[in-house]
Automatic annotation (TrEMBL):
Bilayer topology annotation: Multi-pass membrane protein
Coiled-coil regions, chain positions: none
Record-level GO BP terms: protein transport
Family as reported in the entry's similarity comment: Belongs to the oligopeptide OPT transporter (TC 2.A.67.1) family.
Protein name per its UniProtKB record: Oligopeptide transporter 1-like
Low complexity composition-biased segments: 59-69
Native species: Punica granatum (Pomegranate)
InterPro entries per UniProt: Oligpept_transpt, OPT
Transmembrane segments: 104-121, 177-197, 209-227, 239-255, 267-285, 343-366, 414-440, 479-496, 508-530, 591-613, 664-681, 712-729, 741-762
Molecular function terms from GO: oligopeptide transmembrane transporter activity
Subcellular location: Membrane
Region (Disordered): 1-35, 56-93
Pfam families from the UniProt entry: OPT (PF03169)
Keyword set, alphabetical order: Membrane, Peptide transport, Protein transport, Transmembrane, Transmembrane helix, Transport
C-alpha cells in the first residue's frame, strides 16, 4: 500500500477465521498455530461446542488433538506438518458437488453485495468493511433453504451441450467454501480506486473512463500470473502450510455439524438475526438522529476555549484523552472488529499506541521538533513553511501534470504535522522489523522447510492431500495462468501509455513493477505460508519509482499498485488455492470462482466509485459539504497527500539531502534493532511469560492507520476488544465460543444495510438528519487543529 498507513499491518482488520493464537514458551510469529494452541484455543475456532454451563462437547469432525497419536508411518501417509494432521481430514468425497447453481447465485450475490457496501462506505467519515465472514455465516441457512425448496429439474443451456440442476441435493461443504471464495473477492477491496478518487476529487483532473476501468482490472488480475508461476511450490508443497487456513477449515467443519438449539438458548443463526436486527434499528440514532454521540469529548465540553485542552481531549484531531463513543461503526471503522482480534494482539497495539500518542507525540510537539507547533498536532494534510495548507496547484504544471521545479523552489518545501511525519518513520521501521523478526525467530524453520520442500518437488510431494487432489481432479493447466499474465501486462501497458498518457507511467515502469512483483512473490510467499506475516512492498516501490521518475504523482501510485498490490493479490490467490487444497475443491472450480469473483468485484468497486464521484457534489471536500454529510473520504485524503509526498515532491526532496526530514531514514535501522532487542529479551528471560507475547512489528506499526484513523477509533477499539477477548473470554468462555464472532458479523451487517437504506431514501435528497445541535458529528474540539507557534495564521484559530 501507499504510505497511506492503511495496509502494512492491518492487525485489527483480520477476519475471524484468520486469527492468530499465541503460544507461550516458544518463539514464533503471531499466526503460527501449534498443537498446544489447538488444545487450549480450539474453542476460538468453534471446533469445541460449549454449553451454557461451560462444558465442552467435541464434534466428531474435530477430535481432540490428544486423542490421536501419530507414528512416522502416519506422517508419511498424512501430512508432515502436525498442525495440518490435527485439523485437516486426509479424506475426500469426489462425488460431492462444488460449483453448482446455488454456488453461482449465492457466490455472485455475496461478491456484488460486499463490493458495493465496502466501496460505498469507504468514502464515508467512518468507513465500514464487511469481511467474507458475514457472507460465510449468512449464506449457510439460505443455501440449506434452497436445497430444501428448489426443484431438482435439469436445465439444458441452449446451443451447447451443457446442463445443470437447480438442486443437486443437500447443500454441501464444498459449495459453502466456493461461495466464501466469491465473497472474499468482494471483501478484498480494489486499491486502484484510490488513484481514481485522487485524480477526480482532489486533483480535479479528468480521467478517461476506460483507462480507469483497465487500471482497476489489471492491478487486481496481474496477481494471477504470479500465482500460477509459483503455485506448485507454494500450494502443492506440504511444507507451505498457510496457518490461517487451518482456522478456516475448522470453522467450515463446525458450521456444517448438526446444531441443536440449546436449552434456554438460541442457535448461532438465530443469534445472528437478533444482533443484525438490533444493530439495524439502533444505527438510525448515530447515523441519522443523533450523530454527535459518535464522537464525544468530555474535556472539550468543559474547557471550550483552550487549544491545549482541545489537542489533548479531541478524539478526532487530538490525543483522545477522555473521548468515547456510542457508535459501533466508530469502534470498528478503521481497525476492523475488535471482537475478531485476539487479546495479545490488542495489547501490543495498545502499547504501540500509548508510546506513540501519549509519550513520543507530546515530547516532540511541545518540544517543537521539526517546527511542530506551526502545524496541527495530528493532521494528514501537507503544509508550507508558513503553516498554511500547501497550494499544490502552484507547483504542478497544468498541462504535463508534473512538478514545476522553479515554482517549487520559489514557493516552499513540503511540511507535515509531527505525527504524520513520525507515522512514515514508523512505517519504515515496521518494514525492517518484520523482515528481521521473521529471520531471527523463524529463519531456521523456514530454511529447513525450504530444503524439505525442494526435496519434495523431486518426489512429487508425497503428501496425502496432494495425492488426493491429483487422483480425483483435473489440474489447472499452467498455460491458463500464462495467458492471463501476458494479456494483463499488455492491457496494463495500454492503459498507462494510451489515453494521452493520463496515468503517466511509461511502459518500462510497468515492466519494472512486474519485475519487482515477480522477484518478491516467492520469498514473501514462503514467509507468509509459514508464519502468516506478509512483508509489504509499498516502501520499496515508492522509493524506487520516486528516485527513478520523480515529480510524477500518478506514475508513482500506479507503479506502487502494479508492484505491490499484484504481489499481494497473488498471495491472496495462493492462500485460497491452499484452502481449496485442504477442502478438496476441484482446482478448476477454484480457478473459475477466483477469476470470475475478481472480475466482478473489480467491476462493482469501480462502478460504485465512479457513480459516487460523479453524483455527490463536493464529495471528499468537507469544507463544501452540507452539515452532517458523511462523504469526507478520510482514506482517500491520506492517499492523495501520499501521492504529493512520494510522487510530486519525491523521496529525495522529502526524506533525503534536499528534504526537511532526512533523519526519518534512520527508522529503517531502528526497526532492526527493536526486533533484535525483543529476540535478546526472550533469550535472556526464557521463563518470563509476558515477554513471550511481545511482537515488535505489531507494536511499531500500531499507529500505522493514523491518519486516517483517529485516536477515538483506537481507544474505543481497545476497550471493546479487551472486554470481550480478555474478560468475557475468561469469565464466560462458553458464551464467547458460541457467539463472539457472530456478534461481530451481525453488528457489521446491521450498520451496512441501514447505512445503504438511509442513503437511497434520504441522503440522496440532501436530508442528513433533523436540524438541531446533535446533528454535528464533530467532537466540538474545533481548536484541536490550531497551530500554537506565535504568529501563525490559520482559519478559525486565534493568532498567538
Amino acid at each position: 500500500m501507499a504510505m497511506n498507513n492503511e495496509e502494512l499491518y492491518p492487525v485489527g482488520n483480520q477476519e475471524p477465521s484468520q486469527l492468530p493464537f499465541p503460544r507461550p514458551g516458544e518463539t514464533k510469529a503471531p499466526g503460527v498455530v501449534t498443537t498446544r494452541d489447538y488444545d487450549r484455543n480450539m474453542d476460538a475456532c468453534r471446533c469445541v461446542d460449549y454449553g451454557d454451563d461451560g462444558s465442552a462437547t467435541w464434534p466428531r469432525s474435530a477430535p481432540r488433538s490428544t486423542s490421536r497419536r501419530t507414528t512416522p508411518r502416519d506422517e508419511e501417509n498424512d501430512s508432515p506438518i502436525e498442525e495440518v494432521r490435527l485439523t485437516v481430514p486426509p479424506t475426500d468425497d469426489p462425488t460431492q458437488p462444488a460449483l453448482t447453481f446455488r454456488t453461482w447465485v449465492l457466490g455472485l450475490a455475496s461478491c456484488v453485495l460486499l463490493s458495493f457496501v465496502n466501496q460505498f462506505f469507504n468514502y464515508r467519515q467512518n468507513p465500514l468493511t464487511l469481511s467474507s465472514a458475514v457472507a460465510q455465516i449468512g449464506v449457510l441457512p439460505i443455501g440449506k433453504l434452497m436445497a430444501a425448496t428448489l426443484p431438482s429439474k435439469t436445465i439444458k443451456v441452449p446451443l451447447t451441450g451443457w446442463s445443470f440442476s437447480l438442486n443437486p441435493g443437500p447443500f454441501t461443504l464444498k459449495e459453502h467454501v466456493l461461495i466464501t471464495i466469491f465473497a472474499s473477492s468482494g471483501a478484498g477491496g480494489v486499491y486502484a480506486v484510490h488513484i481514481i478518487t485522487s485524480v477526480k476529487a482532489f486533483y480535479h483532473k479528468d480521467l478517461h473512463i476506460i483507462a480507469a476501468f483497465l487500471l482497476s482490472q489489471t492491478t487486481q488480475m496481474m496477481g494471477y500470473g504470479w500465482a500460477g508461476l509459483f503455485r506448485k511450490y507454494l500450494v502443492e508443497s506440504p511444507y507451505m502450510w498457510w496457518p490461517s487456513n487451518l482456522v478456516l477449515v475448522s470453522v467450515f467443519r463446525a458450521l456444517h455439524d448438526d446444531e441443536k438449539r440449546p436449552r434456554r438458548g438460541t442457535t448461532r443463526f438465530h443469534f445472528f438475526l437478533i444482533v443484525f436486527i438490533s444493530s439495524f434499528v439502533y444505527y438510525i440514532v448515530p447515523g441519522f438522529l443523533f450523530p454527535s454521540i459518535m464522537n464525544i469529548s468530555i474535556l472539550c465540553l468543559i474547557w471550550k476555549d483552550s487549544i491545549t485542552v482541545h489537542q489533548i481531549g479531541s478524539g478526532l484531531k487530538g490525543m483522545g484523552i477522555g473521548a468515547f463513543t456510542f457508535d459501533w461503526n466508530t469502534v470498528a471503522a478503521f481497525l476492523g472488529s475488535p471482537l475478531a482480534t485476539p487479546a495479545f494482539a490488542i495489547i501490543n497495539v495498545l502499547v504501540g499506541f500509548v508510546i506513540m500518542v501519549y509519550v513520543v507525540l507530546p515530547i516532540f510537539y511541545w518540544g517543537n521538533i521539526y517546527n511542530a507547533k506551526k502545524f496541527p498536532i495530528i493532521s494528514q494534510n501537507v503544509f508550507d513553511s508558513e503553516g498554511k495548507p500547501y497550494n499544490i496547484s502552484r507547483i504542478l504544471n497544468s498541462k504535463t501534470f508534473d512538478i514545476n521545479l522553479d515554482e517549487y523552489n520559489n514557493y516552499s518545501k513540503l511540511y507535515l504535522s509531527i505525527f504524520f511525519a513520525f507515522t512514515y518513520g514508523l512505517n519504515f521501521a515496521s518494514l525492517t522489523a518484520t523482515i528481521s523478526h521473521v529471520a531471527l525467530f523463524h529463519g531456521k524453520t523456514i530454511w529447513r522447510n525450504m530444503i524439505k520442500a525442494k526435496e519434495g518437488m523431486q518426489n512429487n510431494f508425497e503428501d496425502v492431500h496432494t495425492r488426493l487432489m491429483q487422483k480425483n481432479y483435473k489440474p489447472v493447466p499452467q498455460w491458463w495462468f500464462h495467458i492471463i499474465l501476458i494479456l494483463v501486462v499488455g492491457l496494463a501497458i495500454f492503459a498507462c501509455e494510451g489515453f494521452d498518457k493520463q496515468l503517466q507511467l511509461p511502459w518500462w515502469g510497468v515492466l519494472l513493477a512486474c519485475l519487482l512483483a515477480f522477484t518478491f512473490t516467492l520469498p514473501v510467499g514462503i514467509i507468509q505460508a509459514m508464519t502468516n506475516n506478509q512483508v509489504g512492498l509499498n516502501v520499496i516501490t515508492e522509493l524506487v519509482i520516486g528516485y527513478f521518475y520523480p515529480g510524477k504523482p500518478l506514475a508513482n501510485v500506479a507503479f506502487k499498485t502494479y508492484g505491490y498490490i499484484s504481489m499481494s493479490q497473488a498471495l491472496s490467490f495462493l492462500s485460497d488455492f491452499k484452502l481449496g487444497h485442504y477442502m478438496k475443491i476441484p482446482p478448476r472450480s477454484m480457478f473459475v470462482a477466483q477469476l470470475v469473483g475478481t472480475i466482478v468485484a473489480s467491476t462493482v468497486y469501480f462502478s460504485t466509485a465512479w457513480w459516487l464521484l460523479n453524483s455527490i457534489e463536493n464529495i471528499c471536500n468537507p469544507d463544501l459539504l452540507p452539515e452532517g454529510s458523511p462523504w469526507t473520504c478520510p482514506s482517500d485524503n491520506v492517499f492523495y497527500n501520499a501521492s504529493i509526498i512520494w510522487g510530486v515532491v519525491g523521496p529525495r526532496r522529502m526524506f533525503a539531502d534536499l528534504g526537511f526530514y532526512p533523519e526519518l531514514y534512520w527508522f529503517f535501522l531502528i526497526g532492526v534493532l527493536c526486533s533484535l532487542f525483543s529476540w535478546l529479551l526472550r533469550k535472556l528471560f526464557p521463563n518470563t511469560k509476558w515477554i513471550e507475547y511481545i511482537n515488535t512489528p505489531v507494536i511499531l506499526s500500531a499507529t500505522s492507520l493514523m491518519p486516517p484513523a483517529r485516536s477515538i477509533n483506537y481507544t474505543s477499539w481497545v476497550i471493546v476488544g479487551l472486554f470481550f477477548n480478555l474478560y468475557v473470554y475468561r469469565r464466560y468462555k462458553g458464551w464467547w465460543a458460541r457467539h463472539n464472532y457472530i456478534l461481530s458479523a451481525g453488528l457489521d451487517a446491521g450498520i451496512a444495510f441501514l447505512g445503504v437504506a438511509l442513503f437511497f431514501t434520504l441522503q440522496t435528497k440532501d436530508i442528513y438528519g433533523p436540524e438541531w445541535w446533535g446533528l454535528d458529528s464533530s467532537d466540538h474540539c474545533s481548536l484541536a487543529i490550531c497551530p500554537t507557534a506565535p504568529g501563525v495564521v490559520a482559519r478559525g484559530c486565534p493568532v498567538l
